[in-house]
DNA sequence: GCGACAG
DNA sequence: ATCTTGTCGC
């Protein structure tokens, strides 16, 4: 698939994103997703499902395969989606919410990895990135839980959210079928001890093993 | 044109 | 992402 075809695919799928659904009533299982990189252009898609209340791991799958697309900013999903979908297919527990390592709405074409994964699976998704990629934002106050909006072309596309006092914020954006307010509530609830949400930390560890 | 650019 | 020494701040 070429760069042009990938961009056209994003434009085609973007209208299918649901940004109005506030999110699931009850979240019993949350999945974290991440991709690790090996030597010979290999990628490992990792998905870890945690019980939402206790954060205990209830299921996990890692799939290693050849990368089918280069890393291109803005087309991140075309590199990471295949191994992630392969791992999702082998899950025995169906998650109620997906926490993705990367952006959702906060994307040049408003269709980051979290949106793409949401549309393809139909599941509620949120995007959590470690660095700023698009838009502008102020540094939020130092207290845990404080945030400031990420603005792109005058629109709010996400939030810089402080998950630990005095530590660099994470960048949260809507993926699919979850409001921005609820996405941030979930991220805070899932990050009791560290900067990143526990499901993402678990998936990150798995993707490296 | 130049620099920046999720992982 | 990953590799990877030295350096900075608390």
Automatic annotation (TrEMBL):
It comes from the Bacteria. This is Endonuclease V. Mg(2+) binds at residues 34, 101. One of its GO terms (molecular function) is endonuclease activity. It is found in: Cytoplasm. NCBIfam families: PRK11617.1. Transmembrane segments: none annotated. InterPro entries: Endonuclease-V (IPR007581). Signal peptide: none annotated. It catalyses: Endonucleolytic cleavage at apurinic or apyrimidinic sites to products with a 5'-phosphate. DNA repair enzyme involved in the repair of deaminated bases. Selectively cleaves double-stranded DNA at the second phosphodiester bond 3' to a deoxyinosine leaving behind the intact lesion on the nicked DNA. The record marks 71 as: Interaction with target DNA.
